[in-house]
Amino acid sequence: MAKATVSQTWNLDDSVEASLAHPHGHVWHVLTNAAWELWRNRLATVGAAMVLTLLLVAVLAPTIARYDPVKQNYREMLQGPSAAHYFGTDKFGRDIWSRVVWGAQRSAIISVLAVLAGVIGGIPLGTISGYYGGKLDAVLMRVVDAWLAFPGILFYLIAATIIQAYKLSLFWNTAGLILALGIAQMPSMARLVRGSVLAEKEREYVEASRVVGEGHLSIAFRQILPNCLSPAIIQATISLGFVMLILAALSFLGLGAPPPTPDWGADLNLAREHMETLPYLAIFPGLAISFAVLGFNLFGDGLRDILDPRLADR
Amino acid sequence: MLKYTLYRILQLVPVWLLLSVFVFAIVHALPGDAIDALVPPDAASDPATRAALEKDLGLDKPIYVQYARWLERIVLHGDFGKSITTRRTISVEVFKRLPATIYLAVTSVIVSLLIAIPLGTIAAVKRRTLVDYTATATALTGISIPEFWFAILCVLFFALYLGWLPASEYYSPFDNLGLSLQHLILPATALGWRLAAITTRLTRSAMLDEVRKEYVDTARALGLPERRVLYKYTLRNALIPTVTVAGLQFARLLGGTVVIESIFAWPGIGLTLYEAILGRDYPMVQASVLILSTAFVLVNLLVDLTYRLLNPRIRLA
User: In this complex, do A151 and B208 lie within 8 Å of one another by their Cβ atoms?
Assistant: First the structure.
């Protein structure tokens, strides 16, 4: 009742009125529209298909892996690709196809959870900083500055070193990695959301909500934030690929999971010992990493074209 | 400009202090303490020895006093302490390794610009043609393929299969320039190629932005040849963001060549840090991280100031 009056007196445009009247009907429209645009953008479709494939492989790992990924078999060491072992076997006779498949699951779980942690930490930080402004904003943004001033790879190396030094079990080791990768995603996410919130909070509908008597937190998170999510979604998608790359680099350096955990980066590192005799060992884990990261990049680019048309064709 | 420069330098102080707190905290986040690292376990378990050592090392003081002393030694005396494994002075060790990293970082950025500027420009000029799609696709794969895998593939193909280039090792350019360059090609390409992927896209979009501007129409209306409009006027302005990002990439490379340096046994600071991590040489880790991140912050500042100098439009009011 009150809301209808507001939109009449303030003469707001239709979309605002629609979203005030039907806060959820709007979402469905946005989704169907997005699906259509996605189909139109072929590269993004390819990316979406790649991401979907990766997720399918990750979920189906227990069924499509044909061998135990950590079981050693000294009778079948260092074999080339064959019908029995699609991608061959490594120096412990472990089936590489199975390791790549389980590695997909590990990669997917870690990067999704890490990006989620970054989103959960970064978005509220950015929203509050942007909405309240003033001293709080100044302090928070200086912290973000210092955070961003620190070269990422050094942070990851240190975090991995600390995690390794505690000699944790695989579960806690992975949890530590997820936390470190997630923390590193927070500042850029906060900065991004803050920027959009700063622009968005000057809009008329915010004033309208204030007039109606909505609380500050409710305005910030229920009115402003939903309109600032597009850049955050794009950033999160691209971060998924980025986190996978970092994870692979850390495991490649021997700072990821303790062996014999199936892990793309660690397997690539193992392959270096046999580069002269069995180069194919270095091919499949690398292909898997590139496939996953490329998928997220293509999909993220496509999402950007859809959600933020001003930036399309760049 | 002077005012802005001073403002930025002052702004760095709290940022750097936060960095130093973080770096100081690393060692305290690790299990065990300095005494366990210094003396054998049976001596460390003896309470009398432990107390004496704690007093000696200042570990009995509150943590903020320890931090202040640590910072004082670094800032006033440049004293980072001694490496646990090599027993050599850390500052000397680190600065000895720095030139190799700078050498690699500078060449990689040059390689990347040599790829990115022509490719990005052509992609923008021949927009939505096969050339453009190829350049865009190349850039996308460049962003997606991990540099260490690319490096391994390069070694496999150029060093092991074709035998054209050496697979690893480092020679100083001052001792033997030819040999040094031979060993530089693979690591510099592996790094530069990935950097180029980012700057190619940037050059392309900056060019596309720039050709829509009014001065381009004016130049065309004046009848200047298209070639001159594009390559003399437009490209120059479009290069500002590209060169800025190349500068930022250089800053990042100073601290981020760990993986490539370890693949190619390149004795830079990244390899030093990596060896220190593997050898649990925590003072060394602490020192190299602080030095690398300080360099990163300083180079970033320089890039930012140069950017403003080149582009007066965005000078702070």
Answer: no
Q: CB distance B296–A279 less than 8 Å?
A: no
Considering only CB atoms, which chain A residues are within 8 Å of B300? Answer: 149
What does the alpha-carbon distance between residue B44 and residue B41 come to, in Å, rounded to a whole number?
5
Cβ-defined contact of B155 to A275 (cutoff 8 Å): yes
Please report, for residues A311, B202, B224, the alpha-carbon distance to residue B228 in angstroms, rounded to integers and kept in the order given: 28, 21, 7
**Residue B89, helix vs strand vs coil:** strand
The verdict on a CB contact (< 8 Å) between A282 and B153 is yes
Buried b (16+ CB within 10 A) or exposed e, A253-288: bbbbbeeebbbbbbbbbbbeeebeebbebbbbbbeb
Nearest chain A alpha carbon to B262: A253
Number of cross-chain residue pairs from A and B with Cβ atoms under 8 Å apart: 121
List the beta bridge partners of residue B89: B82
What is the residue-level pLDDT of chain B in tens, covering all 317 positions?
A: 788 888 888 888 888 888 888 888 877 777 766 666 666 666 666 777 777 777 776 677 788 888 888 888 888 877 777 777 777 788 888 888 888 999 999 999 999 999 999 998 888 888 777 888 888 888 888 888 988 899 888 888 888 888 788 877 788 878 778 788 888 889 999 899 889 988 998 888 888 888 788 888 888 888 888 888 888 788 888 888 888 888 888 888 876 688 899 888 888 888 988 888 888 788 888 888 888 888 888 888 888 888 777 776 655 43
Tokens 């193909």, located at residue:
B157
Find, among A304, A30, A34, A45, the residue nearest to A192 by Cα: A304
**Can the peptide bond before residue A260 be classed as cis, meaning omega within 30 degrees of 0?**
yes
How far is B308 from chain A, CA to nearest CA, in Å? 19
Q: Do A146 and B153 touch (CB under 8 A)?
A: no
- Rounded CA separation A106/A114 (Å): 12
CB contact under 8 A, A145 and B156: no
CA pair distance A88, A77, nearest whole angstrom: 9
- Which chain A residues are closer than 8 Å to B252 by Cβ? 151-153
pTM surpassing 0.90?
Answer: no
Question: How close B180 gets to chain A, by Cα (Å)?
Answer: 24
C-alpha span between B65 and A290 (Å, rounded): 48
